[in-house]
Design goal:
Distance between the termini: 73 Å
Number of strands: 0
Order of helices and strands: HHHHHHHHHH
Strand content: under 5%
CATH architecture of the largest domain: Orthogonal Bundle
Oligomer: single chain
Amino acid sequence: MADTPESKRRYRMVARAQAAEQTRARLLDSAWRHFSEQPFDAVRLADVAAEADVSLPTLHNNFGTKDVLFAAAWSSRMGVEGARREGAATGDARASLRVLYDSYEQEGDAVLRMLAQEERIPAVKEQADSGRAWHRAWVGRTFEQALGPLGGAARERRLTELVVATDLLVWKLLRREMGLGRRAAEGIVLEMIAALEGLE
């Protein structure tokens, strides 16, 4: 069957949409690399665009400002990590911690570099606060067994203890500052979680 004008038009629209999606993905990948390796103030949008093989106006057409680009790059990368963490088996602390530490090993150093700027860069602060809220909710779902039948203030306290045990800064302390191997670091955190599970 010969192509009709309408089918050709639809094909062109689909092709343009796919090209636009690919451009956006390249920009987000480039932006994440720049923001994760350099201070926010040092990131030049022209460099982000050049690495993504697009013009600076194209970057601005897609994201507008540097703050918007940063938020989009953070959300995109953390969305991938979040999806991986959501796949953790509820009730299996060892497997869940392994998934969490996979994420920390992959992106932990980059996130720490960005978090160091949150008090002076509002865009970083906003994403950091959102990430902390998401982590707390994830811990509540994933380590439900350690929360047991607790309710009210007691449950909130236990949840806070679990959030602390699984926080990125604990990973940093164990892996980067103390120089422990990953297996040893995970073992220590597992012992912390097990101790909480054993509390009345």
